[in-house]
Amino acid sequence: MALSREQMAQRVAQELQDGYYVNLGIGIPTLVANYIPDDMAVMLQSENGLLGMGEFPSEETLDADMINAGKQTVTAVEGASIFSSADSFAMIRGGHVDLTVLGAFEVDVNGNIASWMIPNKLVKGMGGAMDLVAGADNIIVTMTHASKSGESKLLSQCSLPLTGKGCIKKILTDLAWLEIHDGAFILKERAPGVSIEEIQQKTEGTLIIPERVPEMLVG
């Protein structure tokens, strides 16, 4: 069975390490903030100028002026800092973010990512994604494995305008955890109850399947 958005966030949270500075993109990535272990010190960075982003607020903790880059209301942890977006992008471009988690429309076997434009549809622009993929070495893409019509989003070559070239190495879909090496997707883990055959069927780009592919450990 395909992972829920919450389960995808849980799996990404397993990649966090103590002391990390992490940028969470719009969509599924923002949910990762809810699954950071209590005993782990992680500072979440938002490109609109917040370092130390916390969980989504309850009605009691909601502050309408405290928002992330996607204009969702958020909380700030103890020790948080608020600054200009110019300082935030200097942090990103300077390579000071340890992990970036982004959504995408397509990823291909060469590590290219398309995440900002669908032709003939109204879009608000690329936002900070171009800076994030250029300034980070450790990027995890979260996305559905295929479109609603069943077309693969893991391709031999992206068909949409690119956000970045050769920058993606790790992908979490609702079906699998994959890494990119030498022009191919490597299947590392599969979602609980999802067959390797289904993953094969929904992966258009070259897929390498190791002898053993464990199921993910998610709630």
From TrEMBL:
Check the record and name the InterPro entries matching this protein: 3-oxoacid_CoA-transf_B, CoA_trans_fam_I, CoA_transf_AS, NagB/RpiA_transferase-like
What keywords is this UniProt entry annotated with? Transferase
A GO molecular function annotation here is: succinyl-CoA:3-oxo-acid CoA-transferase activity
Gene3D superfamilies xref list: Glutaconate Coenzyme A-transferase
Spell out the Pfam families in the cross-references. Answer: CoA_trans
State its Enzyme Commission number(s): 2.8.3.5
Q: Which family does it belong to?
A: Belongs to the 3-oxoacid CoA-transferase subunit B family.
Give the PANTHER family listed for this entry: KETOACID-COENZYME A TRANSFERASE, SUCCINYL-COA:3-KETOACID COENZYME A TRANSFERASE SUBUNIT B-RELATED
Q: What protein is this chain from?
A: 3-oxoacid CoA-transferase, B subunit
Source organism phylogeny = Bacteria, Pseudomonadati, Pseudomonadota, Gammaproteobacteria, Oceanospirillales
